[in-house]
Amino acid sequence: MDWMNRAVAQSGGLHPYIPGKPVEQLLREKGLSHAVKLASNENAYGPSPKAMLAMQQAVSEVHRYPDGDCTELKAALAARHHVETGQILIGNGSNEVLDLLIRCFAGTGDEVVYSQRGFIVYALAAQAAGAIQIAVPDTAELGHDLNAMAAAVTDKTKVVCIANPNNPTGTLLNNDELQIFLDALPRHIVVILDEAYDEFVADIKSDSLQTLKHPGLVVSRTFSKAYGLAGCRVGYAVADASLLAVVNRFREPFNVNNLAQVAALAALDDEAWVMDKVKRVKVQRMRLEIAFSNLGVLGGKSYANFVLLKHAQAAELLNRLEEQGVIPRPLAGYGLSDYLRISVGTEEENNVLLHALETTLAQVKS
Ligand SMILES: Cc1ncc(COP(=O)(O)O)c(C=O)c1O
Q: Which of 13, 85, 271, 280 has its CA 20 to 30 A from that of 78?
């Protein structure tokens, strides 16, 4: 079949993104009745009640297409970030925004530079765009090596991607070092600064949107993490209006659904709720870091809503944790086969995790 051969040839070595294992799948696989998913860095506390109410009220309108321009949400985000509405691009999750940006600015023969342990979607999107992937080795602490990334930029480089804090390593760059990096780049390069976990560091670093300067800088954020709306799929980018006008041509007309738009708008208006949940996540993160450290398995400092576990038999640990109804995220796909990434759960979920971990570590020799 011609079409099949053509599609296979075009996809090259493309592999689909492997998401965290859904609870239902683990229950089926292991014959369990209850499981705790700590694999996708969601907000374990659920969505804001205001967002839930807004969605309930909007349900009767789902026979209508959504506002293709996300007018109200865009206006609210523009006001929040002190920019013009033309400087906001809203996507079906920030994943869509990242994908659109890379597809728009990098094509066959162009280079996309990112960190070896940067968020995997940059590599997937670059590959899907037919671009050359330049994965720069990270630092010994698993962070972005900005000097090496700047050195990797050539006249073929069109896009540079940085996640800050980074997923899956949890590392953080400060804005002074980022500005030095930006100053070292040619002006025409599009720099995607992916701040999916920004709310977790808002108290310890300056707001990139107010401080960083580069003509091609695009800052992306999401409602999937701190705002607890991962299932709605809403994320956005803030950048120069003329840059986003080009990206808009690649966007499908109704990419953000009705319920997602009203939920994000309401969640944005429930700042006290978000701040409370971010605070709780950080308390629980510290609890997990201390516990992991005492158990000798802490994999490094994390600035996001997950913690890294390091153990020589991480694959065996994963298996045994799953048998006890806990779903961590393996990181072998990032070349980190000694690591598991564990999202911060609620206090109760973390009780289950720590109990399972202690039992498992007693069984598995390091
Ligand atoms: C660094 C980073 N960027 C972007 C995303 C995409 O999130 P979403 O598409 O849900 O906004 C994630 C999700 O895990 C992430 O970790």
A: 280
